[in-house]
Each structure stands twice: as C-alpha cells, then as structure tokens.
Design brief:
By secondary structure, the protein is α+β, with helices and mostly antiparallel strands. The chain folds into two domains: 96 residues, Phosphorylase Kinase, domain 1 (2-Layer Sandwich), CATH 3.30.200; 228 residues, Aminoglycoside 3'-phosphotransferase, Chain: A, domain 2 (Alpha-Beta Complex). Helices cover 39% and strands 13% of the residues. The protein is built from ten helices and nine strands. Helix 5 packs antiparallel against helix 6, helix 5 packs parallel to helix 9 and helix 7 packs across helix 9.
C-alpha cells in the first residue's frame, strides 16, 4: 500500500502536522493499522526512528460519543506522572488535519495479551501475578484525586450510575438490530434498584487485560494502560464490575472468539474482589448491581459493533461473530442481580 493510501489516514497531511507539532519527527511517515480495538482505529506510525500511536474515530458508526479520542487524550495527559502508567501524550488535533479528531501518543514497546493462546503460554504463577497486578493498577487509579491531576472538571460524578443506565439504554435504542427482551428487562431492573453511589474517582471505562501493555520480561509489570476513550469521573465500582464482566466466556465473541480475559486460568472473581477491597477499603456488598451494569454496558457495546458490521463499516477480522455475544451477556446480567456467582451458568 502506498504511503498516501492507508485507509483512514492522509499521510502527507499528517507529515505536515508532525513537522509543526512533533519536534523529534525527522522524515516521511509509514503507517500500519494495529491489531485489536473494536471502536477507534489505532495506527502505528514511524519515521524510521521514532514510533507513535495514533487513534481516530472509526470510518462509520452509530455511537460517536463512544469514540471521543480527545477525551481519551486529556485523561492520558493528566495521568502522566502518577503511579498509573500511561503512554506519553504527544499531540492531538480537533479535525483540521484528517477531517476527524485524533490523538497521538508515544509507542510503548511490550506485550499485549489478547487471546487465550497468549495467556496460556505463561506459567500459572505468572498468570495469577498478572491478574493481581491489573487489580493493583485499577485500585491505584481509583484512589487518585481528580482535582489534584487536573481532571476535577472532567465530568459530573454525582448521578453517574443513573446516567450510565440511561446512556446505555439510549445506545441500545440507537444500535439494536433485533428485539431482545432481556436487555429491556435488565434496564428496568437496574433503574429500579440503583444503589447509593460508593464514591467518585477517575474511571477507565474499559479495563481489561488486552488494554494494558506488559513488560516482555515480567507479565506482572504493567508498562502502560491504554484505550481511555470511555474514561469518566464516577463510581469506581462500575469500573470493577465491568472488569469482572469481561471475564465471562460470553464476552469472547466480542474479541473474535478468543479473549484472554475469559480464560478459566485467570483467578476467580472472588479472589480479585477481595484484593481490590483490601487495597481500597471499599464496601462491595452491593457489587451484584455493578456487575449487572457491566454486563448491560458490554452487551450494548457488542450490539453496536455488530450494527457497524452489518453496515459494512468495520475493518479487520472477526466482526462477523460479535453479535453472538449480545443475548448471552444480557442474560448473564439478569443472573448477576441474584449474586455474582449466579451470573455464570
């Protein structure tokens, strides 16, 4: 593919942008569409010396609020210098260069564990250490003071749970491709039993094993947390609930049928929850609600990806099976309301 024919990028325009905004840039750009990612398009750029990662919205889709790369950039920049590892924020553009916004960060070398085969190549002790390291990072994120890192005005944490319930129901109304009574029932039950919020913190919004870059030498060494497009200020237990929902085998089709997060070799949810509670001191007595909310969110996300596939605007392999996840995830959400252990058949 020629340098000017990378789908979704205008490399000559980007070279002009780099020349103005990236001091270390020293030549022509080559671009590669990176593997992974089910929403924003992610590219590796290089000039032969430096390497950067560019994120831009998808070529088409029905849920533009889920693709806010400028919001993602703001969070990444704010977290620099904290004990939550992120790539260095380099530059961003609101649409003048490519016609859509994009964010540019440094490339972080390391290992990304996406599929079960990647995970199963590790000894069990390393798998356990990796899973607990992710919980440690999530706990550190949730103990940060948003005001202290410049994110005090990032959003409205009060009322976060109610807005999430309404938001994902609204998204369902927008992207749903078929009737699914379990989604409607799950929405109604979540709205009826919403608990008092446990607090307010910075949330990742999509925290799972394939959204972190690990050291090749030590899978418990998290070099960077990436994919912050759904970050927010809100109830931290919503982040935790989603992280645990991602471990359900029903989620596997969303990541082409082999998702590392669903591997049975990962520690059980109870062990991860105990570690989180110990690190943060948070009360998890209402966790069933947060787990069900996580299932609701990921079911709608799966349907949104499926809708874009049906429109013919997805790029890459595996999108044809994503729609298989929607109904099982919604059903698991209803079961989760009976208790975290009931979510799994």
């Amino acid at each position: 593919m020629s340098p000017t024919a990378v789908e979704g990028l205008d490399l000559p325009a980007l070279e002009r942008f780099f020349g103005q905004r990236v001091p270390e840039f020293s030549g022509r750009l080559d671009a590669t569409l990176l593997a992974g990612g089910r929403s924003n398009l992610t590219y590796l750029l290089t000039d032969g010396t430096g390497r950067w990662v560019l994120r831009r919205p998808p070529l088409g889709g029905l849920t533009p609020s889920a693709h806010d790369v400028l919001r993602e950039y703001r969070v990444t920049a704010a977290l620099s210098g904290t004990d939550v590892p992120v790539p260095r924020a380099v530059a961003h553009d609101e649409g003048d260069t490519l016609g859509v916004p994009f964010a540019l960060v440094d490339y972080v070398p390391g290992t990304v564990i996406r599929g079960e085969d990647d995970l199963h190549a590790l000894p069990q002790a390393d798998i356990d250490r990796c899973a607990y390291a992710l919980i440690d990072v999530l706990a550190r994120l949730h103990t940060l003071d948003p005001e202290a890192i410049g994110l005090g005005a990032f959003g409205r944490p009060q009322g976060y749970l109610g807005r999430q319930i309404r938001r994902w129901n609204d998204q369902w109304q927008r992207v749903g491709t078929r009737p699914l009574p379990d989604i409607d029932t799950l929405y109604a039950r979540l709205a009826a039993i919403q608990p008092t919020e446990s607090g307010a913190s910075v949330l990742h919004g999509d925290f799972r094993i394939d959204n972190v870059i690990l050291s090749p030498d030590d899978p418990a060494d998290v070099r960077a947390v990436v994919d912050w497009e759904m970050a927010a200020l809100g109830d931290p237990l919503a982040d935790l609930g989603l992280h645990i929902a991602y471990s359900d085998p029903a989620f596997a089709p969303v990541l082409t049928g082999s998702a590392a997060s669903t591997s049975p070799r990962l520690p059980k949810a109870d062990a991860l929850l105990d570690r989180y509670a110990t690190l943060t001191g948070r009360d998890l007595s209402a966790f069933s609600f947060y787990l069900a909310l996580g299932y609701f969110k990921v079911a709608v996300i799966a349907e949104g990806i499926h809708a874009r596939y049906l429109q013919g605007v997805t790029r890459g392999d595996g999108f044809e099976i994503v729609g298989e996840a929607t109904a099982p995830l919604a059903a698991a959400g209803l079961r989760a309301l009976k208790g975290p252990k009931a979510a799994r058949k």
